[in-house]
Design goal:
With 533 residues, the chain is of the alpha/beta class. The protein has four domains: 111 residues, Tetrapyrrole methylase, N-terminal domain (Cobalt-precorrin-4 Transmethylase, domain 1, 3-Layer(aba) Sandwich), CATH 3.40.1010; 117 residues, Methyltransferase, Cobalt-precorrin-4 Transmethylase, Domain 2 (2-Layer Sandwich), CATH 3.30.950.10; 138 residues, 3-Layer(aba) Sandwich (Rossmann fold); 136 residues, Rossmann fold, CATH 3.40.50. It contains 20 helices and 20 strands. The chain has a five-stranded parallel beta sheet, with helices on both faces. Strands 6-7-10-8-9 form a five-stranded mixed beta sheet, with helices on both faces. α3 crosses α4 and α14 packs parallel to α15. The chain is globular and about 90 Å long. 39% of the residues are buried.
């Protein structure tokens, strides 16, 4: 019996689904919205939908249409949406924010209905509630029991002035908000009336401005992008922000962090940084290539299949991927690892094995490194098992710490090159300039090779950039190349590296507050000191 089609995906009938995508953070996409995008035949994107939303939920192979190409009026766009639905089946029309307030959704939907095409409206998380949550500013209080939502424009002062004892949320572009502020002042509102303005809500680029009605326009002109969509709050909840702000007070909020890792490894690092409010930029410094000659790995796989190894030691996520690819080339899978004990150098490598369907027998209880793995690796006992061979499929530039230690413990080690690491191509010129100019607040080095390769392809980070290293050996390489190391991870893994960077950021902020200075990010300190000079 076939499964019942999900709401919004009706077999055999054209359908247009209007989907509100939320304020900007991909994590605020609704569960139903994600399901709809997974099953859609075509997606129509509104210009206000952020690239991050599209990248997170729209498949790269999905046909994508810009809504502006469908016409300038809601009626025309609705008619074109109906035509696309008849051609493709179910299409999803992405609309910013909740998809309802101050949008043309209902007009486009009515046009679809006139064309005899079904539609659904699936709301998203609204901008106003998101602004309240992410700035820590209540829209309603025990004294403000009603709220009006106003689109900034010539009528703003009339709409707002009639309801002076009500909270007001006014939305519009920068120039429209400035026009609205001027109209309100001209209508007799006091210059010292507090207002709160927010842009790029729920993203790490969020900017919140606390001002008065007379000062807000100048600050917007100075700090905001003219294309920004601004949400402005007028009401008594602004005074509570000092106690309720949680998003912009994250230790790394607004930090731009350079991640010199491969795309695959850097993606998870960027996700961890985002939890602390930072934005990670991945700059690959190495490229993974097969060994120059396949003889070593072919011989090792034959020995693995015939049961000649007691252990296989994986010292990186790349090693797991390389062995997986080698086995696939020979038509083999994890079954050839049956009866072999598996060691992983640390948590990420162990997780890569688990994702592959292999449970590691040994993960270091202490430091996640070759030394930590060696400390927990058992010595060979000839009385227990006559096979003392260990396979280490590694990179061509791997150190000899683990190999030498295992041999001293009585193991016969096959140190095999499973893949080569070569220096990646230089990043685009704007990235190189940002690195040298000090636009990045921090850089995370996870190995000595990432230090050497980044300096080689992009130059040295600016002295104002915080340099964080995963361990003493990586820190020594950085210092040898003339960098000042600010953070060394207490444990040799990325999670610890980020946690220690967070503590460093807290220390900087505490020092600024103690000295009665405005807390600044490292990149802001560089710009401030330059202005002083």
């Amino acid at each position: 019996m076939s499964a019942e089609p999900m709401s919004g995906i009706r077999a055999g009938r054209p359908m247009v689904v209007f989907l509100g995508v939320g304020p900007g953070d991909p994590g605020l996409m609704t569960y139903k919205g994600a399901e709809l995008l997974e099953r859609a035949a075509l997606v129509v994107r509104d210009p206000g939908v952020l690239d991050e939303i599209v990248e997170a939920f729209v498949r790269p192979t999905m046909p994508l249409v810009d809504a502006e190409e469908l016409g300038q009026t809601a009626t025309t766009r609705g008619r074109k949406l109906a035509e696309l639905a008849r051609e493709h089946g179910t299409i999803v029309r992405l609309v910013p924010h909740d998809g309802i307030l101050f949008s043309t959704t209902t007009d486009e939907a009515a046009a679809c209905r006139r064309q005899d095409v079904d539609f659904e409206i699936v709301p998203g998380v609204g901008t106003s509630s998101s602004m309240s949550a992410y700035t820590g500013t209540p829209i309603t209080t025990n004294r403000v029991r009603s709220v009006r939502f106003v689109e900034a424009g010539p009528q703003t002062h009339t709409d707002v002035s009639k309801h002076r004892n009500t909270g007001h949320v006014i939305s519009g572009r920068v120039e429209q908000i400035i026009e609205a502020l001027g109209a309100l002042l001209a209508d007799g509102w006091a210059e010292e009336t507090p207002v709160l303005l927010a842009t790029q809500i729920s993203t790490v680029q969020q900017m919140t401005i606390e001002a008065t009605m007379s000062t807000a326009a100048a600050i917007l002109l100075r700090d905001a992008d003219p294309a920004d969509q601004v949400t402005m709050l007028m009401g008594q909840g602004i005074e509570k922000r000092a106690d309720l702000s949680w998003f912009e007070t994250k230790p790394l909020f607004g930090w731009q962090v350079l991640i010199p890792r491969t795309r695959e490894q850097g993606a998870s690092t960027a996700e961890m940084l985002a939890e602390w409010g930072a934005e990670g930029t991945i700059v690959p410094t190495i490229a993974i290539q097969p060994p120059r000659t396949p003889n070593q790995m072919e011989k090792a796989i034959r020995a693995l299949v015939t049961g000649d190894y007691q252990w296989v030691g994986f010292t990186s996520v790349n090693a797991v991927r390389a062995v997986r690819d080698w086995l696939a080339q020979f038509g083999l899978d994890t079954r050839c690892l049956a009866g072999v004990r598996i060691a992983a150098v640390g948590g990420p490598t162990a997780q890569a094995l688990i994702d592959w369907g292999v449970a590691p027998d040994l993960v270091p209880s202490g430091e996640w490194s070759a030394r930590g793995l060696l400390e927990d690796w058992p010595e060979f006992e000839a009385s227990g098992d006559p096979i003392n061979r260990v396979l280490l499929p590694r990179a061509d530039i791997a150190t000899d710490v683990l190999v030498d230690g295992l041999r001293e413990a009585g193991w016969d080690v096959d140190d095999v090159t499973a893949y080569r690491t070569v220096r990646a191509a230089p990043p685009p010129a704007p990235i190189r300039e940002s690195i040298k100019r000090g636009d990045f607040d921090a850089v995370l080095f996870t190995s000595s090779s990432t230090v050497r390769n980044l300096v080689g392809i992009a130059g040295k980070p600016h002295p104002a950039t915080v340099v964080a290293c995963i361990g003493p050996a990586t820190a020594q390489t950085a210092e040898d190349l003339g960098l000042t190391v600010d953070v060394i991870a207490s444990e040799a893994h990325v999670g610890s590296l980020i946690s220690d960077l967070v503590e460093h950021a807290r220390t900087l902020r505490t020092a600024d507050i103690a000295a009665n200075r405005t807390p600044l990010r490292p990149s802001q300190r560089r710009r401030t000191s330059r202005r002083r000079r």
